[in-house]
Design brief:
Blueprint (H helix, E strand, L loop, with lengths): L1 H14 L19 E2 L1 E8 L2 E3 L3 E10 L8 E9 L5 E9 L7 E9 L8 E8 L6 E2 L6 E3 L4 E4 L4 E5 L5 H17 L4 E6 L3 H7 L8 E6 L4 H6 L3 H7 L3 E6 L11 E3 L37 E3 L1 H7 L3 E4 L5 H12 L2
Parallel strand pairs: 1-9, 3-11, 12-13, 12-14, 14-15, 15-18
Antiparallel strand pairs: 2-4, 4-7, 5-6, 5-8, 8-10, 8-11, 16-17
Helix pairs in contact: 2-7
């Protein structure tokens, strides 16, 4: 009786061996006499992965052989695009695959804390313990076609208004972008244009956790008023916006009244739906008192931004180092 119990316990222990939980693993050999050919394609993951977070990888696994494959393992690595070094991140068990069968394989792994901020490819080794009797072993190592960036903080997408000229404006944005990348952030020059601050929000490829940085060369009341509107907030979603004003004498935080910009033909006229609000109403009767000031614009635009939860920076001289530091703090806040 004691002998039978011992054998039962031993068999169970073999069944629960899990190489995924091992850092550097040595997997058990599995008997398999079938002739098959496993291949992998369409290896995909998010373009931006945050340090110490989970990476999700999808791929399509197929058996091109005439025989079924029994169980085997797939090992996952991140290969440095710079040094070529492979870092093991995990392994999954495949319980078998029929002849000419295909299936989508979704997997996720916690990234090692030792990984550095850099660009990587996903590397996958099929049948990592070499237990399958395959007709072709040369196709068992597969890479993702696109690189992923391992970063700290939110990914940053930078837009700019037309301030000086295309060359100077792009150079400014590129300098900011490179400064952020040196600090370990994922940063993109999203482009120039008067409507880029909104079109970037409508781009579904921009991640939900992105930090949108909009650089302006002039203070536009219509742009600030737009940021308080429901349609803008809906497009923004869970993303974060950081506005920066340079090359202007108007300090958004301290200016009392900001008039409609001379080229603003989009904001509805005062009194119409979507137009500038009735800020000048000291007796609170709901009527604008024209003797108190202009009505076609915004009173205390900085307060409006504050009340709607937006962060912003007034950096008149456009100092790149100060702008980079401010964006970095917002991306990691």
């Amino acid at each position: 009786m004691k002998k039978l119990v011992f054998i039962f316990v031993f068999v169970v222990m073999l069944m629960v061996v899990n190489p995924v939980s091992a850092g550097t693993h040595k997997q058990m050999k599995l008997s398999n006499n079938s002739s098959c050919d496993v291949v992998l394609k369409d290896v995909k993951t998010d373009p931006v992965i945050f340090r110490n977070k989970t990476i999700k990888i999808s791929s399509t696994l197929s058996n091109l052989g005439k025989s079924s494959c029994k169980e085997f393992y797939m090992d996952y690595f991140l290969k440095s695009a710079d040094t070529g070094q492979n870092v093991y991140i995990g392994s999954i068990h495949i319980g078998g695959l029929g002849s000419l069968e295909s299936r989508v394989v979704n997997s996720s792994f916690n990234l090692p804390k030792t990984l550095k901020n850099a660009e990587y490819y996903v590397r996958i080794v099929l049948d990592s313990t070499n237990v399958l009797n395959e007709t072709n072993k040369t196709n068992n190592v597969v890479y993702s076609q696109k690189k992923l960036s391992l970063v700290t903080g939110r990914p940053v997408y930078i837009t700019s208004d037309h301030i000086k000229n295309n060359t100077a404006d792009n150079s400014k944005v590129d300098a900011i972008m490179k400064g952020l990348q040196k600090k370990g952030l994922y940063a993109v020059n999203y482009g120039l244009g008067p409507n880029k601050h909104y079109s970037v929000l409508k781009n579904i490829k921009v991640p939900d956790n992105a930090l949108i940085v909009n650089i302006y060369g002039g203070a536009c009341a219509g742009t600030i008023w737009e940021m308080a509107q429901p349609y803008y907030k809906k497009a923004l979603g869970s993303r974060k916006v950081f506005s920066i004003w340079i090359n202007t004498n108007v300090n958004i935080k301290t200016v009392k009244f900001l008039k409609r910009a001379s080229d603003d033909n989009d904001t509805p006229q005062y009194g119409k739906k979507g137009g500038f609000p009735q800020f000048q109403d000291t007796n609170h009767n709901g009527k604008f008192e024209p003797n108190l000031g202009e009505k076609d614009g915004l009173s205390n635009p900085g307060k409006l931004l504050d009340n709607n939860g937006y962060k912003y920076l007034y950096q008149q001289d456009g100092n790149v180092e100060k702008i980079v530091e401010a964006i970095y703090n917002q991306a990691n806040n």
